[in-house]
Design goal:
Distance between the termini: 43 Å
Strand content: 15-25%
Shape: globular
Largest sheet: 5 strands, antiparallel
Order of helices and strands: HHEEEEEHHEEEEEEEEEEH
Number of helices: 5
Bound molecules: magnesium ion
Strand order of the largest sheet: 8-7-9-14-15
CATH architecture: Alpha-Beta Complex
Number of strands: 15
Number of domains: 1
CATH topology: Creatine Amidinohydrolase
Radius of gyration: 17 Å
Oligomer: single chain
CATH class: Alpha Beta
């Protein structure tokens, strides 16, 4: 079933997603060569708890950490580790919270120092694909309008769209209906209605769209080991357009200052 949220519920979802943005801004301040991804996890968990919330991913389906941290060819669901980031890496950080009975969920891909121009283009195009999807996220459109817009932007720029993982409704559960694929056909799929809250989260690969699930039971990586990028927004569907509940401005401000 697809939930339609009240304005009060949407404000709680906004609070959660702003907390996720603030947490990712704390991570942004740490991104540099030599930092371990486990340091991200420690800082994020402390920060979320200091705001009176609970990490949304920790223990979710048995996931053992506060953050999903996915480096280079890892697409999503990577484990934080003692790996020290190197100049030229890209690192996708996905973060969730629970507060007042609702979830927050967003992701951002960071460049570590100077990265190759083609990888920089992958990050830019993936973020643009997210914004193209958001433009379609309004009442009266269908999920397929979001999906097709994301896919078109990624593929016309020569990149590929992961099929195995998709966006989703967000509310009292982290993953609710409807699924929001990053590929699809305009005019198809569930009708978007005022009050729906969904996560739009393109996972875009530089090379093949094919992915491999690692033996740790969680990490997803590209089959050809070329890099992948991931950006995620939570948005509320309104008549006039999407009400974006995530605030990348907070993350990008932290990046500019560091
Ligand atoms: Mg999500
Ligand atoms: Mg996420």
């Amino acid at each position: 079933m697809i939930h339609l949220r009240t304005d009060e519920e949407i404000e709680i979802l906004r609070e959660n997603n702003h907390l996720v943005s603030d947490t990712l801004a704390e991570v942004a301040k740490l991104v540099r060569p030599g930092v371990t991804t486990m340091e991200f996890n420690a800082v994020a968990e402390r920060f979320i708890r200091s705001r009176g919330a609970v990490p949304g991913f920790l223990g979710y389906g048995g996931f053992p950490y506060t953050l999903c941290v996915s480096v280079n060819e890892q697409v999503v669901h990577g484990f934080p580790s003692e790996y020290e980031l190197r100049e030229g890496d890209v690192v996708s950080v996905d973060c969730g919270t629970v507060m007042k009975g609702f979830y927050g969920d967003s992701a951002y891909t960071f460049a570590v120092g100077r990265i190759a121009p083609e990888v920089e283009r992958l990050l830019r195009v993936t973020k643009e694909a997210l914004y193209k999807g958001v433009e379609q996220a309004r009442a009266g459109n269908r999920v397929g309008d979001i999906s097709a817009a994301v896919q078109l932007h990624a593929e016309t720029n020569g990149f590929s769209v992961v099929r195995e993982l998709v966006g989703h409704g967000l509310g009292r559960e982290m993953h609710e209906e409807p699924e929001v694929p990053n590929y699809g056909t305009r005019g198809r799929g569930p009708l978007l209605k005022e009050g729906m809250v969904v996560c739009i989260e393109p996972m875009i690969n530089m090379g093949t769209k094919a992915v491999v699930f690692e033996r740790d039971g969680w990490t997803v990586r590209t089959r050809d080991r070329k890099p992948s990028a991931h950006y995620e927004f939570a948005v509320a569907i309104r008549r006039g357009g999407a009400d974006v509940l995530t605030d990348f401005g907070r993350i990008e401000e932290a990046l500019r200052r560091s």
